[in-house]
Amino acid sequence: MSMANGAPSLVVVEQLQVQFFGGAHPVRAVDGVSFDIAEGETVALVGESGCGKSVTAMALAKLVPQPPGHYAGGRVLFGGRDVLAMSERELRALRGREISYIFQEPGSALNPVFTIGYQIEEAIRLHRPEADSRAEALELMRLVGIPEPEQRLRAYPHALSGGQQQRVMIAMAIACRPKLLVADEPTTALDVTIQAQILDLLRDLQKRLGMAMLLITHNLGLVAETAHRVNVMYAGRLVESGATPDVLTSPRHPYTRALLEAVPRLEGAEGRLKAIEGNVPNPAELPAGCKFHPRCPYARERCRVGEPDWEFAATEARGVRCFFWKEISA
After folding, report:
1. Which end of the chain has less Cβ packing within 10 Å, N or C?
2. 221-265 per-position pLDDT tens digit
3. Alpha carbon distances (Å) from 320 to 4, 174, 282, 290
4. What is the span of the domain harbouring residue 43?
5. How far is residue 30 from each of residues 17, 25, 72, 118, 132, measured CA to CA in Å?
6. Would 142 be classed as within a structural domain?
């Protein structure tokens, strides 16, 4: 596995498979995904809704409920320990303390019947019982830039704006100084100005605390500003990976190219935004061959009948899953 800036891998995901049961056949939501995250590194997992990004992220702390979920294969190594083989007691010690999450839509994630202070202090009391939870919660509120923190600690979630709620979620996530922060679409529900503030905050906190971060997003603009490396996911599988500047300036997979072409730009020719035709396939009804071929402008007969292998060039730290990527990239 690769290392970023000489740092050893904190997380190593090897051939992860997550399935769901609910019909005649299991649904492969995550199908043989492998990647790693080095200590202090930011890695992005990119793709449209329904590609398996969030399920992959939840699997890092074995959060996919069983049933209906089932870990069908692979390993998730965190600091050399296999998370998928951990006991419930070990998982409780891992979640929140070593791996922490910022989920989408903070208004839904925060409990409306408890004060902000209670919800931040809860994680501190659980994982750091020796700490003064009230003083720590107050310091966290200041750290994430919430004005009048003493007053906000006594408030309920509905009294805060969307941006303030997201900052509270970040405070809760970093309360125990985790080694890995998983940010699942952390700016989706926010306006553009607040999005920029939240991203700046995450970058600043990462530097201060030395955390690694997995950024789950469909927004390639966020990736360009934030991530060291990027993994592009489609229909439960990785289709491209590499250093962020390389992937964004010279994409090798048609899906990555299509995502980039769909990004709005201020400069350039006028005209309609180029959209990707069709939809992400239902995991229960995946097409034969390459899973992207029904939407791919470069598809040929070989793509319809055979599935391309993952090609990884260690010298370039680039991976791609496409029969014709060399011709497309030329």
Report:
1. C
2. 788 888 999 999 999 999 999 999 999 999 999 999 999 987 766
3. 19, 34, 22, 12
4. 9-98+178-265+273-329
5. 5, 15, 9, 36, 41
6. no
